[in-house]
Amino acid sequence: MGDLLTADEVAARLNVKPRRVRGWERRGFLTAIRTARGERRYLTAEVDQLAARHGR
Questions:
Q1: Which single residue of 8, 16, 34, 39 could bond 20 by disulfide (Cβ 3.0 to 4.6 Å)?
Q2: All domains of the chain, ordered by start, with CATH?
């Protein structure tokens, strides 16, 4: 499947707040994978693509 990141880890990589990461998910810019406990995880490759598209 690939490496997964938490919202906090994505936020740190992209220099934004975790709240913005969840907003991007709601708007369809990122896809969250839910763990058995309902926690969000994001694919590293997808985060890297988003960063490249938006110059982050």
A1: 16
A2: 4-53 (1.10.1660.10)
Name the pTM for this structure.
0.86
Rounded CA-CA distance 26/3 in Å is 21
Where does the pLDDT of residue 5 fall: very low under 50, low under 70, confident under 90, or very high at 90 and above? very high
Contact criterion met (CB below 8 Å) for 20 and 11: yes
* DSSP conformation letters of 7-28: HHHHHHHHTS-HHHHHHHHHTT
DSSP classification of residue 37: T
| Residues 49/43, Cβ–Cβ less than 8 Å | no
